[in-house]
Amino acid sequence: MIITIATQDYVGTAHFIATTLARRRANAGRDVLLLSQKILPEHASQNQEKENQAWFATEMKAGASSFKLNADQLEQELADIQSVHRDIVVDLPQATQASSLCALAASSFAVFMLKTADWHANSESLLIQQMKAARSANAKVPVLLIVDEATSPAGRAIIATLTASVTDLRIQALATDQQATLAYLYRTIFQTWRAQ
Q1: Which of 25, 40, 59, 79 is the most buried (most CB within 10 A)?
Q2: Of residues 2, 68, 81, the one with CA closest to residue 36
Q3: CB-CB neighbours of 131 under 10 Å
């Protein structure tokens, strides 16, 4: 199972949840790999962008070490490691590059975290594109949207727009306690995995 946790812009909460979720699955006895997308510096030129794209893979077990992947290796690596690791958790803070869309397309469960304060004119089409990428290989992939202010007017407007554009979209409000969000996410993923 490949679980992808994506954000429009880097949010520390998403990284915390991806890392903790991977660790928790490993503690339950599963062979888990955490893939983390490297954030490009804001000042990087377009010429530098491709060579700076990188991913870090960490086996979530005692004594495991990390290794670096470039964007060109990611698709093959995802295909190869599925036979080795029962779970793969992908921490995807900037889901805009080709390798990010490749990771989304390989997902068995996609989680999108959204901050209403960061929502802007381009956010809607970009997020819909990313959600569709998650379902490009399998139209039945569960897609979960976690919204920080789901009950605010802005949050309700965003949710209404996205549910009108993406079928079978699950919605969850981000709890003020990150552990509560993680517990909900872990339970939802486990139930989905068990049903497959």
Answers
A1: 25
A2: 68
A3: 23
Indicate the SS3 state at residue 79: helix
Q: Where are the alpha helices (DSSP H) in 106-177?
A: 123-134, 153-165
Predicted local confidence at residue 195, as pLDDT: 60
Helix axes 153-165 and 123-134, enclosed angle (nearest 10): 40
Computed from CA positions of residues 157, 159, 162, 163, in that sequence, does the dihedral angle turn out positive or negative? negative
Q: d(Cα 95, Cα 104) in Å, to the nearest integer?
A: 8
Sorted by sequence, the CB contacts under 8 Å of residue 133 that are 6+ apart come out as 101, 104, 105
Q: Residue ranges of the domains in the chain?
A: 2-195
Instruction: State the average pLDDT over residues 65-91.
Output: 70
For the 2-195 domain, the top CATH level (class) is: alpha beta
Q: Is this prediction's pTM over 0.85? A: no
